Amino acid sequence: MAATDLNTAPPDFVGVGVQRAGTSWWFQLLLDHPDILAPLQKPKKELHFFGRFSSMPMGDEDVERYHGLFPQRSGGAITGEWTPRYMYDFWTPRLIRRAAPDAKLLVLLRDPIERFRSGVPHQTEFAPKRGDAAINADAALRGCYAAQLRRLYAYFDAEQVLVLQYERCALEPLEQYARTLRFLGVRDDHEPDGVGELRGRTRAADKEPLWPDLQQDLRDTLEPDVRELRAMVPDLDLSLWPNFAHLAAANSVAEGT
Predict the structure, then answer these.
(1) pLDDT digits (tens, 9 = 90+) for 95-121
(2) Contacts (Cβ under 8 Å, ≥6 apart) of 20
(3) Residue 161: CB partners within 8 Å, gap ≥ 6?
(4) Which value, in Å, is the radius of gyration of the alpha carbons in the chain?
(5) For 145-181, how does the pLDDT look when each residue is reduced to its tens digit (9 = 90+)?
(6) How far is CA 63 from the centre of its chain?
(7) pLDDT at 131 over 90
(8) What are the structural domain ranges in the chain?
(9) Which of helix, strand or coil describes residue 72?
(10) 46 and 107 in contact (C-beta within 8 Å)?
(11) Which CATH superfamily is domain 3-207 in?
(12) Which of 70, 160, 215, 250 would bridge 156 by S-S if both were Cys, CB 3.0 to 4.6 A apart?
């Protein structure tokens, strides 16, 4: 049976970002919920469906094929996928809007410099021929979250997008999990197995300490984006991002004056 014969409905939600921010862990917790169904295609999490359309147009038959990757639902069940680079690829938000205009979007963010430290060894393993300079530049750009959110908001209302913070999810997993379920429109009283156990491939052992000049250059490069992000996501707790906690302190002082 062809994939398009199985279902012609778009996914109910799409996780769009970001790489090395706990998305595998969070998606597995979502799939633990009895009303949330996995995609039909393996791997269950990252479909990477829209990547090819940077070099070719997406036709109506492609949209139908995307819909066919998800199971039929009934009784309030929902389904979706999570490909962390969707938010990063500039052409993808418009295509998601076309293929799944009513989908709710999930974004999971992490301190961008810590994300950089985890992303570099990840990319080095999977694309070793790219070279250090290209990998490092790409890893830094992936941390420009505000710019990526602006692209999403050009095609989706802010109410369709839930921005989560990895550090808060790690500190308050049940509270943030229930918040995610409410956003998705399923019952929020489910407590998944292993909610406090981080899943996915950890890069802790592979992370190299950043020398002071590089760390300062990263902070100087990313700080304007983090400031804009804080304005876009008011409940972002910058005190949980070690490399930008000074912004939270400065903001507290300004509010107290």
Answers:
(1) 999 999 999 999 999 999 999 998 786
(2) 84, 110, 115, 118, 119, 122, 203
(3) 104, 105, 106, 107, 149, 152, 153
(4) 19
(5) 999 999 999 999 999 999 999 999 999 999 999 999 9
(6) 22
(7) no
(8) 3-207
(9) coil
(10) no
(11) P-loop containing nucleotide triphosphate hydrolases (3.40.50.300)
(12) 160
